[in-house]
Amino acid sequence: MANTSQNSDRPSFAIFNGKTIPFEDAKISIMAPGLTFAVTVFEGLRGYWCMDDSQLYVFRMEDHLKRQEFSMKLIELDDPPSSKDIARHIMNVLHANEMREDCYIRTQVFVDDWGDMVATSPVSSSVICRARARVDAFQTGKDFVIVSWRRNADDASPPRIKVSANYLNSRLAGLEAKRSGANAIILNRDGMVSEGPGGCIFLYRDEKLVTPTINDGILESITRNTLLTLAADAGIEVQERRVGRTELHLASEGFYCGTGQELTPINTIDGKPLSDGKPGPITRILQSAYDDLVRGRNKKYLHWLTPVWPDESREG
Ligand code: PMP
């Protein structure tokens, strides 16, 4: 299969070092440590268009920026942009591209120019956005396999830091799964379930929603946190605990989640169907609760939504 190219979705404008410029003009040095050593922290966010109030909402922007601050602190950058700066850049890129539909936003902060692997400056930053609709797999679900690669450990290349360098592990896992037409589930060094290449794993077992802990080799996912909250609201019992490999086969349903994947039902694991191999009822309840939340229909969590357009210009 040909590589899927996202060229057609390229935005007209990017924010590069705080300035709004044509996307094609945003260029970095070929010797930038952000490239040569993947010294780049990033966040992927989604914006959701809400028909009812003709508004685009960025989902949990503050929490993404807080995580990015933590990542920047850990990899040690000189004078990085503040969360306030990046929040402004996000709004600027959405305005510049006239974004009025579901979209994806990518922020990056990295060491630019030329340097060794401990270079802490000069720091550059970028923000882009592009239209991105709901994942198709939201409805259909996907097949998963447990891959032979193990999750990078917290004392080696910590998954808690959202840094590009960590994604070699995700890539190797993803490539192995792709060879069998599936998606990856990665175990950690102890052989316990950690997560997938770009999202967290939930199982439903014995009437409890179960997910690995934040110390099992996962990114502290904002979607995971959201779903734990929504599950509690729905009266579903939740357990954050170590999850054994064999439990994957005891589950009656399961799903994969993250900003990109949203909630992707898990149909099969290693060729074995969970129940009947179709998205289960608890997954459907949480998908619907998630959709209500991100589109502003759940008034309890409006504080998680940042409106993009001022009232008077919503109609565009
Ligand atoms: N784990 C990994 C490795 C990821 O890359 C992502 C995507 N950011 C997630 C989990 C899900 O995190 P979030 O819900 O914050 O997008």
Explain what the structure shows.
The chain has 316 residues and is α+β, with helices and mostly antiparallel strands. Helix content is 24%, strand content 29%. The chain is built from seven helices and 16 strands. The chain has helices at 33-36, 61-75, 83-96, 137-140, 167-179, 222-233, 281-294, and strands at 13-16, 19-22, 40-50, 55-59, 103-111, 123-131, 142-150, 183-187, 193-195, 200-205, 208-211, 238-240, 253-258, 262-269, 272-273, 305-307. Strands 7, 8, 9, 10, 11, 12, 13, 14 and 15 form a nine-stranded mixed beta sheet that branches. The radius of gyration is 20 Å and the shape is globular. The model is unreliable at 1-5 (pLDDT under 50). It binds 4'-deoxy-4'-aminopyridoxal-5'-phosphate. 4'-deoxy-4'-aminopyridoxal-5'-phosphate binds next to helix 6.
Which descriptors apply to this entry?
16 strands, 9-stranded mixed sheet, 316 residues, globular, 7 helices
